[in-house]
Design brief:
single chain; mainly alpha; elongated
């Protein structure tokens, strides 16, 4: 027994709608994954810059030269995204958001990482920074650490992450056991 033509068209419409939903969800998820991975890469670049400067006990004047040279070299090699200003943001990003680490196995439901190299893997760091890079750059304009935490939490909530998710992200960052701000954070990004 075959379905009438209108039922076939209706069933086909549901099929297309379902496939469209799957594809749109996958595209959003992949874009978020790419954004988080690139944000983690920028954090790692900032970390390497800071560590390089500290090992050489570089003075501030040389720090500016270093950033300018890195920006030129990275731009020549990789193209857009490595302006002097953006490389400064990468360094500032590392300094503003302390070293991420994996939370306990109870919180994450995963094995605890045993090595420093595993602790600093790109994918593990990406889990700590779910917002796009542009959001963190905007948050860098806030000088007050509590204000940054407050607005980051607000952005995560608007993105659909639950308070438990945001707590897990907060817990995943070492040296960032910052208490949540009650009420107004006191500073806005300009």
């Amino acid at each position: 027994m075959t379905l009438p033509k209108t039922k076939k068209l209706e069933a086909y419409g549901h099929l297309v709608s379902g496939i469209t939903e799957v594809l749109e969800t996958a595209r959003r998820a992949s874009a978020r994954s790419v954004n988080a991975t690139m944000t983690a890469a920028y954090w790692m670049i900032g970390r390497r810059i800071v560590e390089f400067e500290q090992k050489g006990e570089l003075r501030a004047e040389y720090g500016e030269e270093l950033i300018e040279r890195l920006a030129a070299d990275l731009s020549a090699r990789y193209g857009r995204g490595f302006s002097v200003r953006n490389v400064w943001h990468m360094k500032s990003f590392y300094l503003a958001w302390p070293t991420p680490q994996t939370t306990s196995a109870e919180l994450e439901g995963r094995e605890i990482l045993q090595t420093v190299s595993a602790e600093f893997s790109l994918l593990n760091i990406a889990e700590c920074f779910p917002l796009p890079w542009s959001a963190y750059v905007r948050l860098l304009s806030l000088k007050n650490e509590h204000a940054r935490t407050f607005y980051e939490t607000e952005a995560l909530a608007r993105r659909g992450l639950s308070p438990v998710d945001t707590c897990l992200i907060d817990e995943a960052r070492s040296r960032s056991k910052i208490k949540k701000v009650d009420g107004v954070a006191g500073e806005r990004a300009e």
